């Protein structure tokens, strides 16, 4: 059986598995997020999904959602995977172009051996080792849950027999403790990423030491050095390894030290590897930073014939707010009605984390800035007034993702809008409005300290933090807001009141329907 398979990378770098199939004579396609930006991992996951569909005879259909698919592939044991590979014929097209063909003739022993070697390589890979470790650690859960009986008991016993227990506090315990300690001090997404990188290191150590219980006190600098080398061989950059993986793992060593599990005077084995210098880091930051929009870009984006054709309320207001506040899209999407208020007769926007649904990236992000006069001319205050009937949020139909972020869908929609307009530079995204605003203020002579206050950046000087207070909203309105001067067709960009109201009502109905369906499904389960 042949599965038409393609791996595609989104503009944000995430890989997707594209499954093509026929249903009632109609050609259809489904995309599954592989939840990784690493091409090697994406390839491994796509192979496993294809093998799963063969093993479970699902080539003609897909499961209902990504979670069901990803959960199902985790239940394939090595024997089932090898059996699936016997019938596997797959062609993978990576984003960089070209084809990777993996085919097997069941009557050709050489082909079978090649596919079995592919299976062996998989189980030696990051994902395979992680799955084997999870099988070992989940023996009790498997024995109690009929849903997990697809995993061979003999395979589990064999894996358990191969492990050994070493005295001391193991990494998995510290990972759980770290999550508990940091749940109120780290943003949910940051905590999730830390946990992901820590778990990856824990799985790697478990494989290297042949036990999931290897204590942190016995991890050496050589272990970490080999870990770094393996990450670099997988194609990760020096910056990613140091700032993401090593930072997350260092958090475990710091916790171990505070808990008395690491000698107070001993240096952490994650320190001093110097994968890149400060100069290199600066170059990388400049290379990877978001580009500001040019004057030509802005004329295209806010061209009334393009801009007024968008359907969602966020499509209309968020880019304008981003341009005239320099705000992050996550800050703007979580605004509440009462965040727009008058201070000393000046209409202002309060960006804060005072409500339980609001989160800020840094303490400096908390600020109050004036509503730009051009926003008022376009009808922003009328929009705020109209939204009061729908509850407390400025964009009431938005739903937070698992990290509490309301901006995921609006960000994707704006990216698609740029693609339609032909602005295809990957470094030009919604965050480019922030760079555009900051650059405009700089070019018009606004000092760095004032710019930092306005757009919510840290300004690390003793003078600004200790010996001076912030500018008032009145000062920002009179001296800063006028410097955000863009040549745009504001006379034609008037708040499309009825369209926004109708769109909001429709989206709220859809939101309520989804919530009711979710509740009904939960009751059935």
Protein model, in words:
The strands form two sheets. A five-stranded mixed sheet has the order 3-2-1-4-5, covered by helices on one side. It has a three-stranded antiparallel sheet with strand order 6-7-8. It is 52% helix and 9% strand. With 525 residues, it is an alpha+beta fold. α1 packs across α3 (78-86) and α5 packs across α7 (153-162). A hairpin with a 2-residue loop joins β2 and β3 (26-33). The chain has three domains: 2-127, no CATH class; 171-285, DNA polymerase, domain 1 (Orthogonal Bundle), CATH 1.10.150; 295-512, Orthogonal Bundle (hpI Integrase, Chain A), CATH 1.10.443. It is globular and about 70 Å long. Mean pLDDT is 78; it is low at 1-5, 57-66, 89-100 and 135-167.
